[in-house]
UniProtKB/TrEMBL annotation:
Record-linked PANTHER family: DTDP-4-DEHYDRORHAMNOSE REDUCTASE (PTHR10491), METHIONINE ADENOSYLTRANSFERASE 2 SUBUNIT BETA (PTHR10491:SF4)
Species of origin: Cognaticolwellia beringensis
Alphabetical list of Pfam families matching this protein: RmlD_sub_bind
Cofactor notes: Binds 1 Mg(2+) ion per monomer.
Gene Ontology molecular function: dTDP-4-dehydrorhamnose reductase activity
Catalytic activity reported: dTDP-beta-L-rhamnose + NADP(+) = dTDP-4-dehydro-beta-L-rhamnose + NADPH + H(+)
Record-given protein name: dTDP-4-dehydrorhamnose reductase
Gene3D superfamilies membership: NAD(P)-binding Rossmann-like Domain, UDP-galactose 4-epimerase, domain 1
Enzyme Commission code(s) on record: 1.1.1.133
Length: 292
């Protein structure tokens, strides 16, 4: 049953790449409203398939017949994207294209999770693109196919307690380091405005229930530097952080360039979906009290 015929019934959601960091939490939240299936490499996934191949993509989707595809598949390691552009292209461009081709034929909705890495200025709007590495380049290129089939692109960043074995979020790393009193470097000149994975997942439900094609920045209001984020998290968790070192990005010798200011203007999303997004400090507090 296609999306336009399915408004009064449970939509079938397929989360591609759903065994990563965000997938388990998104699946848990969305399953409260929709019929959710998880695609991934893990044996815990409901289905597997090589989405780089259109033939395998088509076979998988013809079997699953989702009304909505939420694509979380991506090569997110910035240095790997710089070293292996072909791999970055396959995962960040080819897969969204294959999903989009199937959605066009079957009139399904494609929601692409993109990144704040395509920006490099304070509170950038959706038009203020500034690419500094291959990760940003391929993620932006992957958006084009989604938009051609009236899909939705959500540029975002997220944190929170991981439910995936072997994967840790930025906030997980901060808490672990502070609890162990390990010396860590905290960037004083890198800024962002992410959401918790729980809040992001709840907003995905809003988007699925009332889709509006296009590109949207989806983050918290009033962003912070990564240093201030970590120290705020430490304070709220009652942890000492005097042994953490304040550093500039230029102090480290990394293979790929990174944007220094990824804070996004989120007004378009708020106005379109009639919501008020939370502040980053309230999101930090939320991950310390939430069960998810």
């Amino acid at each position: 049953m296609r999306l336009e015929e399915n408004n009064l019934m449970t939509k079938n959601i397929l989360i591609c790449g759903g065994t990563g960091l965000l997938g388990p939490i998104a699946g848990n939240v969305l399953s409260g409203q929709f019929s959710v299936r998880i695609h991934g490499k893990s044996k815990k996934a409901d289905c597997q398939g090589n989405l780089i191949s259109y033939a395998e993509t088509e076979a998988l989707l013809n079997k699953e017949m989702p009304d909505v595809i939420l694509n979380l598949v991506a090569l997110t390691n910035v240095d790997t994207c710089e070293e292996d552009l072909q791999l970055a292209y396959n995962l960040n461009v080819e897969i969204p294209k294959n999903l989009a081709l199937w959605c066009k034929k079957n009139k399904s909705l494609l929601i692409q999770i993109s990144t704040d890495h395509i920006y490099n200025s304070a509170y950038a709007s959706e038009e203020d693109v500034n690419l500094v590495n291959n990760y940003a380049l391929t993620k932006l290129a992957g958006e084009a196919s989604v938009l051609m089939v009236d899909g939705m692109v959500l540029r975002t960043n997220f944190f929170g307690r991981s439910q995936t074995e072997g994967r840790v979020s930025f906030s997980d790393w901060v808490l672990k380091s502070l609890k162990a009193r390990e010396p860590v470097n905290l960037f004083k000149d890198v800024f962002f405005n992410p959401l918790s994975m729980k809040t992001l997942s709840e907003l995905l439900a809003v988007v699925i229930n009332s889709p509006h094609p296009g590109v949207y920045n989806l983050g918290s209001r009033e962003g912070l530097s990564k240093e201030d984020f970590a120290r705020t998290l430490g304070d709220m968790a009652g942890l000492q952080h005097h042994f953490a070192k304040s550093v500039s990005f230029a102090d480290l010798d990394l293979k790929a360039a990174r944007p220094l200011d990824m804070r996004m203007n989120v007004e378009k999303f708020e106005l379109t979906f009639e919501v008020t997004l939370p502040t980053l400090k309230s999101e930090i507090e939320g991950i310390l009290t939430s069960e998810i």
